């Protein structure tokens, strides 16, 4: 009985640690942004520029800003990387609005996706916890 309790306690502590570690990982946030950027690119390739622009805006204001990835980058990696990411989002919106060739938009989206992954890795390597940016702490 004592062994079963000890095992249960160890399992519960492990589950809590795994849940906390997942809350500290920035890659899921980057993945959310990337998913929306992929949706935007698909919309653009289907000829729906209006939806594509809306989805790029949602990627920026949704998970990128809403999950505080931009704030973490600005605070821990510097103003310049945050500014460059913001410019990349803006450039994609402008490319879509101007009717740029699909290849050009796809290249810009892929560059932004890679930058998001790189910055998420840098935040993780620096040990920047997502919980620092939670509202109502």
UniProtKB/TrEMBL annotation:
It comes from the Bacteria. Keywords: Signal. Residues 1-21 form the signal peptide. This is Cytochrome b562. It comes from Marinobacter subterrani.
């Amino acid at each position: 009985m004592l062994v079963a309790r000890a095992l249960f306690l160890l399992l519960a502590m492990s589950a809590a640690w795994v849940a906390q570690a997942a809350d500290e990982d920035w890659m899921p946030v980057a993945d959310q942004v990337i998913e929306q950027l992929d949706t935007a690119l698909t919309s653009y390739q289907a000829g729906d520029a209006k939806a594509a622009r809306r989805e790029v805006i949602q990627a920026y204001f949704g998970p990128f800003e809403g999950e505080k990835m931009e704030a973490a980058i600005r605070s821990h990696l510097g103003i310049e990387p945050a500014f460059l990411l913001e410019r990349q989002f803006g450039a994609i919106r402008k490319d879509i609005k101007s009717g740029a060739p699909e290849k050009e938009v796809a290249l810009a989206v892929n560059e932004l996706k890679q930058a998001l992954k790189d910055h998420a890795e840098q935040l993780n390597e620096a040990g920047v916890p997502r919980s620092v940016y939670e509202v109502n702490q």
